[in-house]
Design brief:
Blueprint: E1 4-11, H1 14-26, E2 34-38, E3 44-50, H2 51-57, E4 65-72, E5 83-86, H3 91-104, H4 117-130, H5 150-160, E6 166-173, H6 179-187, E7 191-197, E8 203-213, E9 216-222, H7 230-236, E10 242-248, H8 254-266, E11 273-279, H9 288-298, E12 304-307, H10 313-325
Parallel strand pairs: 1-2, 1-3, 3-4, 4-5, 6-9, 6-10, 10-11, 11-12
Antiparallel strand pairs: 7-8, 8-9
Helix pairs in contact: 6-10
Length: about 325
């Protein structure tokens, strides 16, 4: 019987990620293990990461995977990684690599997640800092309440409530694009990362924070890199007034992520303002000015294009001020 293994494609460009996902699906019968593909840097058995992206991260990358596969665009190799693969992906080189890993590596069981004292204190501090609801009547949705802790219930209520003089800004972007860091930078103790259960089977890992800026209450939400279900999207963006696409310029093919998100949004009913915001600009090899002109000409539906260092509170504050002014 095949073992279920988790494979993260979060370190790849979008086209390579989709190709790898397709090949794994087509070759399941010829693979030793059953590979489940995820898009984010989560605890996994194997993670694929492009060498250019890893180089741009300059040592800040800490893998949550038991095995990291370095993906190269040429024949360059490094002794730091036991498993390496040259692009382009083919059914043969992917099958050979994954089966080699399955046969020769002894995976360890994932430790069951338990809330640490720090996490429990973070939940408590978050609830205490928020205090009473700022947002009037609560329009609650039907949650599987038995599987939601108090923090998740509070956040879900705030995401779905209609509240005067309140803005909800949603961040979406590829893994490590700065969604979590931007919310944490400006909201500090009024921010948290948690799972929300939108049905009995579906949970979504989000970042959430609340601040007051220009005399207006603002709810900030960071979404996963890809939303898999319509119900999740409807709940998480029900009261959204603005959506900010964080475009990580340190990634291979950063514009493919912008195309993906705008194509995804074109099929949604949400009538919200959409912004593009660059992050990791210091890693971009080309001209930012030409990049902005290119995006403006190709995507006139964008309300604005900005750039931030998500670690800097002042940068995030300036971005939100511009969003609120429009």
């Amino acid at each position: 019987m095949k073992e279920n293994r988790i494979l993260s494609t979060a370190g790849l460009g979008l086209s390579d990620s989709n190709r790898l996902k397709t090949y794994c699906s087509l070759m399941q019968e010829s693979l030793v293990d059953h590979w489940v593909i995820v898009d984010d840097f989560i605890e996994s058995h194997v993670c694929f990461i492009h060498s250019d992206f890893l180089l741009n991260l300059e040592g800040s990358f800490k893998s949550k995977s038991q095995i990291t596969v370095l993906v190269n665009k040429d024949n360059t190799t490094t002794s730091k990684f036991d498993f390496q693969l040259k692009l382009p992906f083919t059914t043969n080189n992917v099958k050979q690599l994954l089966n080699n890993i399955s046969r020769n590596h002894a995976f360890t069981d994932f430790a069951e997640h338990q809330n640490t004292d720090d996490e429990k204190n973070s939940n408590l501090n978050f609830l205490l800092n928020i205090g009473k609801s700022l947002f009037g009547e609560k329009n609650k949705i039907n949650l599987n309440k038995a599987r939601n802790n108090k923090t998740s219930k509070v956040i879900t209520e705030r995401l779905t409530v209609t509240a005067p003089e309140t803005s909800q800004v949603v961040f979406i972007g590829s893994p490590r694009s700065g969604k979590s860091k931007a919310i944490e930078s400006i909201c500090m103790d009024n921010s948290i990362t948690t799972n929300l259960y939108v049905s009995d089977e579906v949970s979504v890992r989000i970042d959430y924070g609340e601040i007051k800026l220009k005399n207006k209450n603002i709810k900030l939400v960071g979404l996963p890199s890809k939303i898999r279900s319509e119900s999740s999207w409807e709940i998480l963006t029900k009261q959204a007034s603005t959506l900010v696409i964080l475009l990580d310029l340190s990634r291979p093919e950063p514009l493919t992520f912008l195309e993906y998100y705008l194509n995804f949004l074109s099929n949604k009913k949400n009538k919200i303002s959409i912004y593009c915001c660059f992050t990791h600009c210091d890693k971009f090899k080309g001209s930012l000015h030409k990049l902005v002109l290119n995006i403006k000409n190709k995507h006139p539906e964008l309300t604005g294009i900005y750039h931030i260092d998500a670690r800097e509170k002042t940068d995030v504050e300036k971005l939100l001020s511009k969003v609120l002014d429009n």
